[in-house]
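In practice, a research group might receive sequence data for several interacting partners and want a quick structural hypothesis before committing to experiments. The following worked case mirrors that situation: the sequences arrive first, and a predicted assembly follows.
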Amino acid sequence: MTATLEPGTTAITSARPAWVTDAKLASWNRWVSAPVTGGEEPLTATAPYDAQPTAPVPSCSADDVAATVVRARAAQASWGGLTVAARAEVLLRFHDLLLERQDEVIDLVQWEMGKARYHAWMEILQVANLTRHYARRAAAYLADRPVRGAMPLLTKVREVRVPRGVVGIVSPWNYPLYLGVGDAVPALLAGCSVVSKADPQTPLTMLWTRALMGEAGLPAHVWDVVTGPGAEVGTALVGSADYVCFTGSTATGRVVSEAAARRLVGASLELGGKNPLLVRADADLDKAAAGTVDAVFTNTGQMCIHIERVIVHESVYAAFRDKLVAATRALAVGQSFDFSIQVGSLASAAQLAKVTAHVEDAVAKGATVLCGGRARPDLGPYVYEPTVLEGVTGDMDLCLGETFGPVVALHRVSSDDEAVALANQGDYGLSASIFSRDTRTAQTLARRIRAGSVNINDGAALAAGSVEAGMGGMGDSGLGRRHGAQGIQRFTETQTIALSRMGPVGPPPGMALEKFVRLGNAQLKVLRRLGSR
Ligand code: NAD
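A structural hypothesis for the assembly, expressed as tokens:
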């Protein structure tokens, strides 16, 4: 059965925000790190709302990227020499400017990427929270750590944190503001300089943000932006940065990880997912259905942590399914620069093709469409109806492969053990959710699910929004964590500084080695008796 959705709005004929003048575009383009070689064709994306070109940005060559990293490395020396408090002042000014000027960047995010306005605003919320958190906590996260030395009292030893140098950030189009700047903020506070490769679909959002950081007082070349085709520019950045921070697909993540490993530079990788949500027999079904709708359709399903599999206990399956389908059908779908829409457009023709192919493959192999299941060109070129399926089996592409669209499959189970086994199927391990009134059992179950985050009685966003806690994936969903202590400490290396108060450690002049060994053994026994270490 295919649902008939109430259209949220009519198609947009021109998506370019009226305030985006040619002069403004030219001023943002000046933030692209100045081309050294030039001569490459400018790059122009297609706006999802009207399928028209957005605005051209320069295309950097591999040499441009290498030169940009050299400039950033030079700029890092003085930036890294500032106190954390001085760096935090710049970031807090950025926070305030972002809140003041949010309507501009929300327009740009919508123009370039097509999401609903509310979901674009959530990027503001996340970046503001992250920036404030790190500006206030960076000094503690980066503080020296005194440790016990080799010889009690006679030595003083501490671990200190040293910025890695130039962090190369490669981020995707689905959260151009949050993922574009969310890792740059802790990297800058850690004393690194940053070179960001903007995604070819969403470079204007990145350039606007860089311009705003300039207004906040960030010195030149401490954060530079390179633009151009993903593979060329991304490869060049991974080939020259001192640390790589990558967010994107698992396939590209493997390529990036291999390239970083060959150069013996560190990398954190935030990759794909096929996230499960468990509805236990005792769940509040109204809350579970509302949470599921939010977790599946936020950002039109183009969110790494969004839910693509819902695993429901058989005793509540029919009741939950009916509530979920009703809530899905009630969503306002379409495209609009106001807050009237709940599910926006997909970002590109490629996304529409992938989502369509996944659903068609599932239906051809026997899955049932409970609602949605088709494109809505009457609402926008890349709009796809929020879709709920059941009867999905292992031979279907969308069963364990990431769809990255507004599509979810329902699965029926008869026990917690079966639910956990199904949740752990596949190679991904990014995020999971559990709805249950028994929160103690839910927390025990959470530890059995292989996922970097588990939300209990929330659809998807609670863990990611708790910016003091690490966020990242297990298995094929990545390496390393963003947010919290790990999210900033990864941009530093520890250095151990050991001081001797008695001169070089070893036998004093004139003492026989044998006597020194006897004294050493006696000292070890005393320390053992004292319970030292
Ligand atoms: P993608 O891997 O195709 O591209 C990601 C970025 O890498 C883009 O900017 C692209 O231009 C660049 N790139 C492409 N080839 C490259 C190369 N050889 N070297 C370096 N960079 C290269 O991913 P996508 O399809 O654009 O983004 C969607 C994917 O990102 C989904 O799988 C989604 O789950 C994942 N994602 C993960 C997280 C997370 O935090 N775990 C967050 C958002 C998105």
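Before designing any experiment, note the following. The CA atoms of residues 94 and 212 lie 7 Å apart. The pocket of nicotinamide-adenine-dinucleotide is lined by residues 170-174, 179, 199-200, 230-231, 234-235, 238, 247-249, 252, 255-256, 270-273, 304, 402, 404, 430, 473, 478 (CB under 6 Å).
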